[in-house]
Amino acid sequence: MKRATVRPTLLLTGFDPFDGAKSNPSWDAASALDGRIVGGHRIVARQLPTEFDASLRALRAAIRETAPSLVVCLGLAGGRKELSLERVAINIDDARIPDNAGAQPVDAKIAARGPAAYFSTLPIKAMLAALRKHGIPAQVSQTAGTYVCNHVFYGLMHALRNKRDVRGGFIHVPNAGRGGMPLEDIAEGLRIALRVAATTNEDARIAAGAED
Q: Among 21, 30, 100, 210, which is least packed, fewest CB within 10 Å?
């Protein structure tokens, strides 16, 4: 009798709708990939609330539940038109609009004793190269903002700071459909990026910086 293959877990999170929207492409894309095998990993998708406090509680619970070897959090950047591979999370909340719980922190640290910033531990340059090779619009982004997306990105890296065998990072997705990118292309781009993240130990060395 053959034993079932035990695959490492890739935890993929997306957010619920916010600011009056009926859906959130970050969750739509994450849920579309739930259960898929990518780069030898089984994707487990979990939805996070678009709330400063509750998002990190839900993320930490998902990490405990799934014991992943790779964690990628997704968020919506409605003003962008490509997949944005985030490089750095900063230790600050500065909300332009309230979250779904009505909280609107201004100039508040995410972790009182945490460092000013954390870098992604994903191979973002190799992911970028693969996306562009397949014709998926993508960029390395130098800012994840100061809203709940950055809050989750920073909180993720803070939670993983002592877990040397677990890598993590954040990807912003554009709006789905008109004015953004078809949801099918978002999901396919994420599949490509996640495969590279799951199978690449040493990042590529290519220029992908910004002048402003």
A: 210
73 tagged catalytic: no
Output 79 or 61, whichever has higher pLDDT. Answer: 61
SS3 for the chain is CCCCCCCCEEEEEEECCCCCCCCCHHHHHHHHHCCCEECCEEEEEEEECCCHHHHHHHHHHHHHHHCCCEEEEEEECCCCCCEEEECEEECCECCCCCCCCCCCCCCECCCCCCCCEEECCCCHHHHHHHHHHCCCCEEEECCCCCCHHHHHHHHHHHHCCCCCCCEEEEEEECCECCCCECHHHHHHHHHHHHHHHHHCCCCCCCCCCCCC
For residue range 117-152, list pLDDT tens digits in order: 999 999 999 999 999 999 999 999 999 999 999 999
Q: How far is CA 41 from the centre of its chain?
A: 16
Active-site residue, selected from the candidate residues 73, 86, 151, 158:
86
Residue type at position 98: P
Question: Tens digit of pLDDT for each residue in 33-51?
Answer: 999 999 999 999 999 999 9
Radius of gyration of the CA atoms of the chain, in A: 16
Give me the percent of the chain exceeding a pLDDT of 70.
97
Q: Of the listed 73, 82, 149, 151, which one is catalytic?
A: 149
